[in-house]
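Please review the protein record below. Tell me whether the encoded fold seems credible here:
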Amino acid sequence: MRTLMPWTRMTGTEMERVLNRFLEGKLEEQSAAGVDWAPSMDVSETKDSLIAKLEVPAMDPKDIQISLQVNLLTIKGEKRQEQEEKEEHYHRVERTYGMFARSVRLPVTVDGSKVVASFKNGLLTITLPKTPTSKGTTIPIKAE
């Protein structure tokens, strides 16, 4: 019977996260299998590019994979838990660990050969230059 009600195994914090994502309309962004947490992400647009920024504190860049297929940007990784010391006993654990996967459909076509990713102070910044056709053109109006 317990397998029919998987939410009964969730902690209060996990249930709160699921409900918050549902209420914010972000539930569809969460990958279904094997995901333990999801870093916060901002996607902005300038005249020439899209910029995605992810908060991935205490992570090593080598534990993060970025892929771009057509207009779908996917970032996967794993935040590893520190090895527990034998003499150390935790009174409270709030930090999250484990695998994550974030995917976002890009609103414009980008040039995959010119994508640049940088990592500084726990912030992953991915710059995705737009293709010339996706930048659009300005059409001047001739006055008579």
